[in-house]
Every structure is written in C-alpha cells, then in structure tokens.
Amino acid sequence: MAENGFRADIEGLRAVAVLAVVLFHAGVPPLAGGFLGVDVFFVISGYLITGAVVRDLDAGRFSLAAFYQRRVARIVPALLAMVLAVVVAAMVLLLPSEIAAQRGAAVSAALFVSNLFFWRRDPYFAPPAETQPFLHSWSLGVEEQFYLLYPLALVGARAFGGRGVPLLVLGLALGSLAAAALAGPAHPQAAFYLLPTRLWELALGGLATLLPPTARGPLRELLCAGAGAALLLALILVTPAVASPFPAALAPCAATAILLAGGDGSGIGRLLAMPPLRAIGRVSYSFYLWHWPLLVFWKTCVAFDPPATIRLALVAAALALAALSYWAVERPLRHRLRRATPRRAIAGAAAAALAVALLAAAVATARLHLRSWPPAVVRLLETRGQHIPGVATLHRAGCRADRDEKNVSCLDRRPGTRNVLIAGDSHAAHLVPALIARFPDIHFLIAMHVGCRPLLRGGASQGGCPPEAVAGPTRAFQIPADGVILAGRWQEEDLPALDATIRALRRAGRTVTVVGPVVEYFPSTPELLARAAALGDRGWIDRRRVVERERLDRAMAPLVRAAGGTYFSAYQAECPSGRRCRLLTRTGRPFHFDYGHYTRDGAAEVVATMPRP
Description:
With about 625 residues, the chain is mainly alpha-helical.
C-alpha cells in the first residue's frame, strides 16, 4: 500500500460497486443484487477512514479540523452541483406539484440528512421511489454522519491504549449488527436508512484496516479468490426481497472486507487494478450522484419502461456526466478547498450547502417552473396528495371514523340496527366515507391497519403484519356483526387465504362482501392525467395502467362466489367496457389522488354501484 493509503485495486472495487448499483437501478440484468453495491461502498469507506485516522494518530499529526476539511472537499462540491442541476431540471421538466413534492428531499440532500428525511416519511403514502430524484442521497447522509462522529470515537478510544481502537471498532460492529438483526423485521425503514443499523458495514471495513498484514501465499490467494467469487455471486443472485440491510448484505460485506485486507497484490487485486476499472472507480462518486436523477427524469417525462438500448444509453450518459462533473467540479474544487485553511474550507462548504438548501426550498415552495402549463393541466393536479379527510388517521390507528372527525370506538356494535364490519388496509379506508353516506341506516364497524389485508391464516391475520394488526382483525371477526366487507390492496398470493377467510366467516353466519382490486396507475394519476392533457395523448396514461390488477380482478370473482361471498368489482365500476377506463368523475375530478386511492368523488361514484352489504 502507498504511504497515503492509496491502492489501485480499491479504485477498481469502487468501479464494481458503482456499476452494480447503476445497472441495477437501470434494470439491466443480470445484477439482481446490484443494490448491494451501496453496502460495498460503506465497507470501503470504513476501511479508508479508519486507516487514515489511525495512521495520523500513530504519527501524532491527527487534526479533527483537517480531517473534516478533507471530507468536505471530497464530498460537498459534487453533491451541491448535482442538487442545483436537479432543481433547475425540475423547473423545466416537472409539473408544479412534482416540483413541490421535492422540497423536503432537496433540502435534506443538500444538508446531508436525507436518510433521516426518508426514514421519517410515511412509506405508505409516499411517492414511488422512481419519481424521487434525490432518493439515492440517503447513503451520503449515512456516510456524512459517520464521518462526523467516528473520528471522535477513535480519538477517545486511543486514550485507553493500543487496544482501545480495535476493541471500539469490534464493539461498534457487533452492536450495530445486533441492532440491524433486531430492528430489521419490526422497523425496516429504520434498519435501512439509519446509521446505527448500517454502522456494522463501515466498522467491518475498519476491522479490515486493523488486521495485521497477511503474508503472500496460496492461502491469501485462495481467500481473495473466494471473496471475489462470493461478492460477484451476491451481486448477481441476491434479490431485494427485504429492505433491511441484514442479513442480505452480510456475505458481500464480509467478502469486501477480505478483499480489502488481503487483496493488494493478489490475483483478484491485479484484476481490479486494470485501467478501465480504475477509470470508472475514479469517477464513481459522481457516477453515483448523476445516474439516479437521470433515470428518474427519463421515467417521469419520457417512458417509464424504456427498452434495453435506452437503459444502456442512459447508463452511458450518466457516466459521461460523471466524467464532466469530476473534471469540472469535483477535482478542481477539491484542490481549492484543501489549499484553504480548515476553518475557511468548512465554513465555506457549510454556507454553500445552506444556500443551496434555501434555494431548493424556495423553488419548491413557490412551485417555480420555467415553462408554461395550461390552466386545465394545473387544475388536474389539485387532487394530488389530497387524502379524503380522516382517512389517513383512520388507516393508521383503526379507531377514527369520518362521520364527524371525532374519535369513536370502531368496534362498538349498535343495537337495533344492521352492523357491518369493514376490515382491510387503506384500500378499505378510502371507501368508508362513501359507504357511510350511501347506507345511512347501517352502522359500520372498522378494523384496519396499514399494509395488512384482512385475512385469516391458522387463526391469525396474514404474515408480515405487526402484532396489533394481527390482533385487530382477529378480534374484529369475532364480533357478531351482521355482515363483513373485506377490502385491501389484494395480491395474487392472498387468494388461498381469502378463500379460507370467507368460508370461516360464512360458517359464523356473516354475509361477506369482497371489494376487488382498484384500478392502479404508475406513478400517480393526477400527474399522468396532467401530462396526458399537456401532450394531447390519452395513451400516455393508458400505458401507465397496471395491467396485473385487471387479471387479479378476473381471478378473484369466481373464487369469492364459490366460497359463498358477494364480489364487487371496483375495477369494473371504473372500467365498465373492460378496455377503456374512466379517468375523471362526473365533477371533472380524477378518480384517484395517487396511484390508486380514491378521491372523495371517485369513492362516491364507485360505491354508488356497490350492492348493499
């Protein structure tokens, strides 16, 4: 290794990581596990940062201010250039509502806290990932928070002697790994976005730095070859079935640590040090910054599902932008900031980040755009994100009805009237106000939970739901209601359990009405309607309709009837011809305020055709 810690094979390893991430995001096979490239980057960062700090501590020249100066010079210029470019591009390409939706993400990206922003946002009603040009900046937030706190911990550990640093890094790795394992199933958002559950990956790289140098020989070659093969297999085979970084990232992170500890001079190290890989690795930071916004703008404004040739062309364009950013922004400003005093460099970078954040906030708040959108287009956007009053709270808590916006007991029966239980997720909640208005003589009981369809499997609700969601429908199904309405964002794998649930409720003497899947569009109905109107192309939105929902609707109808239930096709209520779907209600409003949840008018028109439960 060079005196300053530089290794050519690490540049190549960076190239492997960034290519994996970019090709995965672009949908280019066969890298099903390409998302693990971010985890590889974390291990590399932990390796390099631990090595740099420990070397400076050993030499007695470590300066916290100088460390922060180097990090600021490396990271801030290219990031702020990307944020500014995306804000300007949004003013040209995006609709006013789409610009407004980026405010929090743009500000948090400029201030390196976007991981906290995306963690705190309600994932159920959040815009799809493919429409968020700053989503990828979450990993930079994790790294920057690591850079801020980790050197302080190392300095403190060094005060306890030579073993202090290794023991600290090992403790951080084990504690964080335990936190990731425990938090992943119950709190996947936190496990994915937060530093405490990602720290083990960075600490694993630190441990690789602290290991004594390995002698060259067959064993090291074998270990490095095995690690390289394990990493490649993970990037090809692992699927993103779980959001949590544990356990999917464990094997590739361990493989990366082995390559870092022993790869210098090995056969794998020589392969990674090849000039083409080093060239990509050199611009990997800018490549990562630019690829995601480019993909998002293309999917939003041109075609959501482009052919393979376009996907590859977008990857090539992102690489060209990365090279331009590296030579025009990243490299020259890095040198300039490193020549300044630490205080001036850090203060200047902080002022620039704050200025960019304020500019992004002002643009998004005012919905500033550099092109003119017709008034009819703007009117179509008014329903975007305007949830039916009370539904979001009803959906989360399961104990708020929409009659008078006051808390009520959702499972109290009313004697002397017909009591009907509504059970489901938000695709049941958006029907509640319309059902109450349509059937005023029925008393509705409510049992709902986010993302949990109302199913019984072996006496409990479906797997994957938290305990309160399991207990809620199970308890609700035991209440002697006269009838039950089951509604949810049904999936094909739900059908066997749905059949069993209907039969169990029928044996208990309840009538059962099942509301089938709604029409869905991707990413959001109001924006698609507005773009279709601006382009004069009805096909723009028709091509974005999720065709799988119609197939599921056709499969559910005979199953529900065979089990003894009544099936109501919400899909056919909106698409009576089976081919051409209604896009607007009779009042001229969109049926949906997002990908599929009904507006108030949309719910009323659909429920108007529903049989009495």
